[in-house]
Amino acid sequence: MELKATNISFKYPSAKKYQLKDVNLELDNKKIIGLIGDSGSGKSTLCKILSGYVDKYEGSVTLDGQPLPKKGFKPVQLIYQHPEKVMNPKWKMKQVLEESWEVPDDILSEFGIQKSWLTRFPQELSGGELQRFSVLRSLNPKTKFIIADEMTTMLDAITQVQILDSVLKIVKERNMGFLLVSHDMDLINTICDDKIYLKDINGA
Ligand SMILES: Nc1ncnc2c1ncn2[C@@H]1O[C@H](COP(=O)(O)OP(=O)(O)OP(=O)(O)O)[C@@H](O)[C@H]1O
Ligand SMILES: [Mg+2]
């Protein structure tokens, strides 16, 4: 499993300067990489490009040599920092999950999800509880690569480790790739095999 970004350059339409310039990155499922950078340096922008949420950029992103599919299921799944922003507030959590896949009971309990939460709306759960759903949603059996963009920033240390342990267990079992974006150097040093500083690979 190889996720490769070649000469990625990107400018927001409203901006004067490029946010990303000639960024090259090679990720695989053998090593967990941590991506580090200052606030506003373009980490989330790069994550969106790597997972297929941005159309207009220069360069290419390939997964095992193939461009990312333009339609349908996204094999590179992005877990956002703020899960509430990407969940339909009118759906109960059961529907939010099932939109992606039918999660077996043992995985629900592995992630500490209580059955009663399934019949609640997103706004009726805490940030940490919601993030468990967001992570689980990304673990569709078709997923090849997970990009976790500061997914645990809003959680306390214990919950953070619990969720990451559960997700990394599945990532290993299924041979998926995993990129962790974080400000937290302790977390990166604990979880990741290697780290990359965005400023070192960004020519902008
Ligand atoms: N939709 C947008 N339109 C215009 N500018 C944007 C847009 N989204 C982000 N930006 C700008 O692009 C820059 C990079 O933003 P990005 O979210 O990628 O940074 P980041 O490294 O993820 O920061 P943080 O660590 O705070 O999450 C910022 O200056 C931001 O203001
Ligand atoms: Mg960000």
In short:
The protein has 204 residues and is an alpha/beta fold.
Task: Based on the model shown, name its key terms.
204 residues; alpha/beta; Rossmann fold; 4-stranded antiparallel β-sheet; globular; binds magnesium ion; AAA+_ATPase; ABC_transp_ATP-bind; nucleotide-binding; transport
Please identify the top-level CATH class: Alpha Beta
What's the overall average pLDDT, rounded? Answer: 94
Shape: globular
| DSSP summary, beta strand count | 9
Bound molecules: adenosine-5'-triphosphate, magnesium ion
User: How many structural domains does the protein architecture include?
Assistant: 1
CATH architecture title: 3-Layer(aba) Sandwich
Structural class by sheet pairing and helices: alpha/beta
What fraction, in percent, of the residue positions are helical? 25-40%
Biggest sheet strand line-up: 6-7-8-3-9
CATH topology: the name is Rossmann fold
Terminal CA distance reads 28 Å
Task: Outline the biggest β-sheet.
Answer: 5 strands, parallel
Please give the count of helices.
7
Beta-strand content bin: 15-25%
Protein name: Peptide/nickel transport system ATP-binding protein
GO molecular function: ATP binding; ATP hydrolysis activity
Keywords: ATP-binding, Nucleotide-binding, Transport
Family: Belongs to the ABC transporter superfamily.
